[in-house]
Predict the structure.
Amino acid sequence: MTDTARSTKGSIELLSFTVGGEDYSVDIMSVREIRSGTTATALPHAPDYVRGVINLRGNVLPILDLAVRLGLPHAPGADARHVIIVVDVGNRTVGLMVDAVSDILTAAQDDLQPPPDVGTGGGQGHVSALFVMNDRLYRVLDLGSVLPAIALDAA
Amino acid sequence: MMEMRASFFVECEELLEALQDGLATLEAGEEDNETVNVVFRAVHSIKGGAGAFALHDLVRFAHRFETMLDELRSGVLSVEPGLVRLSFSCADVLADLVRAARDGTEPPFERIDQTMEALDEMIAGEGEEEVTSADFQPVGLSFDFDLGGDAGGAGDSAPPVGHVITFRPAAALYASGNEPRFILKALAALGPVRVKVLTDDLPTLDSLEPEASLIAWRVHLDADVSEAAVREVFEFVEGLCDLVIERPGDAGDAAAPGTTPALPGTHPVTKATWGLPPAPVPTASAAPAPQPTRPAASGPAASGRPAEPAPPARASAAEKSADKSADKGGDKGASAAVEAKGTIRVDIDRIDRLVNLVGELVINQAMLAESVQDAGLTGHPNVESGLNEFMQLTRDIQESVMLIRAQPIKSLFQRMGRIVREASSMVGKEVHLRTEGEATEVDKTVIERLADPLTHMIRNAVDHGIERPDGRIASGKSRTGEIRLTAMHRSGRVLIEVSDDGAGINRPKVLAKAIERGLIDADAQLTDSDIDNLLFLPGFSTADTVSDLSGRGVGMDVVRSSIQALGGRVTIQSEPGKGTNFSISLPLTLAVLDGMVVRVAGQTLVVPLSVIEETMSLTSEGLASLGSESQVLRVRQGVVPLYDLGVELNYRDPLDTYVGRIALLVTLEDGRSVAIAVDKIEDQRQVVIKGLHSSYGRIPGIAAATILGNGQIALILDIGDLVSRARGVTRLRDTLSLAG
Amino acid sequence: MSLEVLAVDDSRTMRDLIAHTLRGAGMTPHLAEDGQHGLEVLEGLQPDAIITDINMPRLDGFGFIEALRADPRWRGLPILVLTTESAPELKQRARAAGATGWIVKPFDAEKLVKALQMVAG
């Protein structure tokens, strides 16, 4: 990760990763760190995509299972070797459990296009844009929408 | 400057507290002169500071209030209930004004005006004096020392063509500590001067009286300044000298350009005892000596010249000595008392950082202990004792750090006094607030976050609890109702009680309302305590059920959840005709707790030690079924319901049998006992509380999280909340049918 | 030569302000929080002037000045009184107690420095 994330005008740096066999990405400015998975402590009464919480250097970090959240199948054996992308969303920090981190991509803002309206299928609402690079379709994750809504309601 | 302003507001809070204390003493009829003085000085000091910061509204009100207190001090007014009530109102308004000034918000003008009127009535007869008169003109504070060249005398229309000043000090001038030398110097700062020493009064040496004042001066001031500016220089010696100020030419002096130098030895040296070198009397040649052409005040102090920094060592030594002598010093007077303890003010962020670091230390210590165990070193005596010492030290540091955050709950209680006064006057009731245990120390954050729920409970007590005066008399009570607010430490927690001697909860009405709102079934069988607890249900307290006073869209459910958010619990007891008692139990600190680490369904959890009465192994003799889904546990004192922690947290289904598992006997805030079944007890230790609220949100039955020695996170249970939501299922229906 | 000034006031804010002002004018402040304390602090000092509040616990400004004037060491020391009222009686009383001059509050840095210069150079 570099400090020059937005050095090129009109372009955006994205961290790409795979989850449930699909290519996703997040704005690298939101990414705080990447770490290998550790055992999470389960939270009672939590939605199924909340894996639990882990200790991130003395802080309690909630872990979201992104595949479950997006309604995607778990890659076989993914549990054993999953990766956690720690992201800042607003004033909260959460860990996204994904299959694997792939690359850092630079996409021109012009190449990003809004997701087409394809009905109300699961997961679609969590994508803020799409772009194609090297013949692969990448989805840009809408971080705000994947956070557990319960966190605030139940407070 | 901002710092000083901030420090002023901090001092104001202390003064307001002293004011409240003093008024409470007066109210209790224990007045003495010193109490009145303390009250007066508190208001006086607030006014003084407010003037310096040009807080006009605050000054104006404080001045009026001070005037009344001054009359009280001088015996014109006397302590009587009306005056005390008014003083409390004034103290409230004063607090409003202080906070409005601090926060830059609009003060409650209407209330201020009303109170001012009441003050005027109280001091009627002498009420003509207006604060805005020349008597006390608030002016802003100017720190740049830039006078704009005008040393005063604005409005003086005399054509400034210079002055001839004849100045003849009387002996009293020297006795007052004034020095003609400095006065002449100040004159010289106004413009070019020629000074002549008039020696005509000088006696011959043989008749010289050492204490007499013999010398006079005539000064020609060729400066474009007003006579008022000249008079200002002589302000302190007015009446202590003969002073004539004339126009040049009017003075029959024929001022010789060369003036006679002062005769050596004739200058009265009254200051020799404290070591100022006697300076020569200024002469014409000395006139340009104070170089600045600016007026005296701005000269040496002018921003143009880099101010020589005060020798810091010296200053701090003085402050140190100030602290030291304050130590043995007075316990009277607000600021004196505060400083007498040798306090320092520290940014709260620094303390919080320390709290966090100590939290890390506690975790580290746990990790180390675990590593030592893993390495098989537990039996080693040196390692063992070293580890124990480390643990003890960690705990001591922990406690000391927590104490830094602790504050007496007094400030919060004082605020409640105001709530009672305002609320009772709004609904036409007479209510007295009695407080106990004000010195009880509680974490600062807890105090801050307790203000809203407590305010609401107090308003409720005034509004719904206490009866009207006639009603009270009819039921054989005193006219004035009483609300008691008490705080105490009890078994590692802080217990706060709000109780009133009012009518108690009207249970039939509460029941009817709950049914009407669909909160309970119409045929529900509820105990008295169940009914009382309906008050805490969300949706119970709605707009049409409450008056203006306790309304405001907040119900007791909000009160309960804010207290729960602090790791606390609130319970209610009420007796018809006698009153209602709310008791709030809070953790001493929000940072650590003593917990029991347990395992259930493969998960590690922490139960606060403070709720656990005892632990026991479950046996088939102790367990008995109750209905198709539940079991109870027989213990010495009777039968208690059994809850499976794993089931209640959705970790697992009920077990076939609980024999061989562990039960934690827990006492709830309302006095009930329950048994919580877990698989295993692992450890008992101090854990650092990590909030879940900010990172995740509130989880039913869970108070917070902590980090264990192995780096894993464990959840800390909120047993009261857990039980209140518990399903109580400890038997599987199908198991039952199989068995049957 | 920097003037050394002892400021006696029970209000911390006032003490802070005075100290700040004095330092700004190149003077050296010493602080005490009431008359009694002032007398104690003076034991280790040879100030060029004193500024004192009137209303203070333990020993008020008048008492403080009287005590100073009764002590030959401090008889000629310039003493300024900080007062809220400019009422002539108050000045008379301050003078009768032995004050050299007075500064009428609200606190004004410029007035303070000027007054000090009028009595202590």
Residues 348-374 of chain B form the longest helix (27 residues). Chain B touches chain C through 77 residues (CB under 8 Å).
